[in-house]
Amino acid sequence: MSAPTPERLVAITGMGVKTPVGLDLDSFWDGLCGGRSAGAPITSFDTSDHPVSFACEIRDFDVTAYITPKEAAHLDRVSHLGFAAAADAIADAGDLGADPGRIAVGAGTGVGGLLTLEAQISTFVAKGAMRVSPFLVPMMMSNATAAFIAIQYGFTGANFSVVTACAAGANAIGEAVRLVRAGDADVVIAGGSEASIAPVGLAAFSRMGALSRRKDDPVHASRPFDKDRDGFVMGEGAGFLVLERWDRAVARGARIRGAIAGYGRNTDAHHITAPSPGGEGAVRCMQLALEDAGLTTTDIGHLNAHGTSTPLNDASEAEAVLKVFDGAPPPISSVKGATGHLIGAAGAVEAVASVMAIERGLVFPTVNHEQLDPALGPIDVVSGAPRPLAPAPALSNSFGFGGHNASLVLVPSPAA
Amino acid sequence: MDRSAAFDQLREAAVEVLHVDASAVTEGARFKEDLDADSLALIEFVMALEERFDISVPEEELDGVTTVGQALDLVMAKLAASA
Predict the structure, then answer these.
(1) Which tens digits make up the pLDDT trace of A297-326?
(2) Interchain pair B19, A70: CB under 8 A
(3) Are A159 and A140 spatial neighbours (Cβ–Cβ below 8 Å)?
(4) Annotation: CATH topology of B3-82
(5) Can you give the CATH number for the domain in which A100 is found?
(6) CA B75/CA B73 separation, integer angstroms
(7) Residue B34 known to be catalytic
(8) Strand A332-333 with A302-304, pairing
(9) What is the pLDDT of residues A402-412, one digit of tens each?
(10) pTM to 2 decimals?
(11) Chain B residues within 8 A (CB-CB) of chain A?
(12) How far is CA A268 from CA A42, A171, A301, in A?
């Protein structure tokens, strides 16, 4: 096996998640392996006028365990979830002992504070301009989560947000890796968050024809690569990693959970929502990530697919994967059967899942995947029970509306 | 509405919008220093007063209003003008 050179590695020393199947790492893992999707009728608003009335909601999350009620009132749910996941990741990393000016934050999101925006537009229509909240702008802006993390912890290094739809979480992590490699930061808090299960948001995604219509059986609606899949299921949540310069993570005796060895990103430049023909953009993106890591396809032991459960994405991704891996790809799984599609948080939550799979020596199964769609070709989708995995690098894909592609190569800690 | 009743209303609004304890809301309390209300929070608070008292407070009239007592003066003047 080829090996990534140490200077290309960025250590992962902390992780945190907020997902529809678990609000901490252990419960998240149990949710991925438990076989039950979080798909259920929406309870947070009235869906009687909607063609799609279900999603994967987070129901038992209390942000006041992390921030005061006053702070919570001036942040959108997307930042509640994002900040809480980041705080968990920072706590998981132990004492960073870094210069705050050398700690950066990168946070991805698909749409930012949509719940607040929708509510304020309703207020505007009902009561007029003078009743619009002065907090609308800071609550809805897509960079609010990254800014709030910095404010709470006093991290004064580079701070940015990535808005590349469903690739945003992976792009934020990848750009953070480049920041560390370039010497611009010693530590980066990087990930993504999303909370777009909102009345107009739901209507908009369903009007695109992107969502599953399986409303009589929502728990089985998100079924990546299955022959009966009919669309994705909206989810919400967040995932954050603490990424650290390899040598300093080793020097401070941090528990290194794994490392990021490679990052590829490109754009289809083809269509605003449809993938490029033959999955060409995705093919090149995966190759870029492998080249960046100094690895070849035979090194990869597990592929975390974008696997949204839409007919088009899964077909295009399967085609791309078969091309990249020359007809013999490694075991594939998608977390989206369990969690639904976390949009701008997906790539970050799935990076966490990929690292946990490496740590535990198990590939998590693809919930609801019962029968492989024969049109997808000979891909090996892990389903049912977790499958043993020998220590090996993993490849994680994220593809976003807009044609944005991002792939990460995650490797076991060489020290392990 | 007398000043005492108006103050009770104003205090309720402050507790709700500024997330402070009722005991902290006195006529002498300063919005910024004592109630931790920044300029955005103050705008939200005035919006709450407009709704509660059915009054209209143009932004320029807020110049120089730094304490709860001054805000109450403004409310009382608006209520008198509309009576």
Answers:
(1) 999 999 999 999 999 999 999 999 999 999
(2) yes
(3) no
(4) 1.10.1200
(5) 3.40.47.10
(6) 5
(7) no
(8) parallel
(9) 999 999 999 99
(10) 0.96
(11) 18-19, 36, 40-41, 43-44, 47, 50-51
(12) 34, 15, 26
